[in-house]
Amino acid sequence: MSEVDVEGRTRTVTWADPRAGLVAAKSMSGLAYLSAIARGEVPGAPIARLLGFALVEVSEGRAVFEVEPAEFHYNPIGTVHGGLAATLLDSALACAVHSTLPVGAGYTTLELHVNLVRAITGDTGRLTCTGEVIHVGGRVATAQGRLTDASGKLYAHGTTTCMVFRPSGSGGQE
């Protein structure tokens, strides 16, 4: 196998210690915590810094992320790797669920289904990923989302199922 000549592109990524966010999360409702991240008062997830996306809007049951696709997102065949769309959908869908949870509750993704419907390149322009809750029960929550460009053209869509963890004594009935 021969070596490929590399031009020397670099990308430097810095992030805040995620433990500060974990401490804040334990004392705030999901909506208050995510709103603090969107305002820059609490550090966001290091993965968002690494991939260059951000939470730009949150309300109860809804979360919106944005990204500007770039060359560093590319796969070997010259388009943005599908993992970027999957990560954006996972983030938007899970945060939509998180925005509905009270202080002390948490969640984890159990299932993520992503449909990639159009190639993304560095020329695509800014993409918006919107996640919206379908159902939040005592232990299970579902959400759906869409990844679109500025004109509303669809690039990917998906759904998630999350397991919800509630503090003892807070019910938990579906």
UniProtKB/TrEMBL annotation:
<keyword id="KW-0378">Hydrolase</keyword>
<dbReference type="Pfam" id="PF03061">
    <property type="entry name" value="4HBT"/>
</dbReference>
<dbReference type="InterPro" id="IPR039298">
    <property type="entry name" value="ACOT13"/>
</dbReference>
<dbReference type="InterPro" id="IPR029069">
    <property type="entry name" value="HotDog_dom_sf"/>
</dbReference>
<protein>
    <submittedName>
        <fullName>PaaI family thioesterase</fullName>
    </submittedName>
</protein>
<dbReference type="InterPro" id="IPR003736">
    <property type="entry name" value="PAAI_dom"/>
</dbReference>
<dbReference type="InterPro" id="IPR006683">
    <property type="entry name" value="Thioestr_dom"/>
</dbReference>
<comment type="similarity">
    <text>Belongs to the thioesterase PaaI family.</text>
</comment>
<feature type="domain" description="Thioesterase">
    <location>
        <begin position="78"/>
        <end position="154"/>
    </location>
</feature>
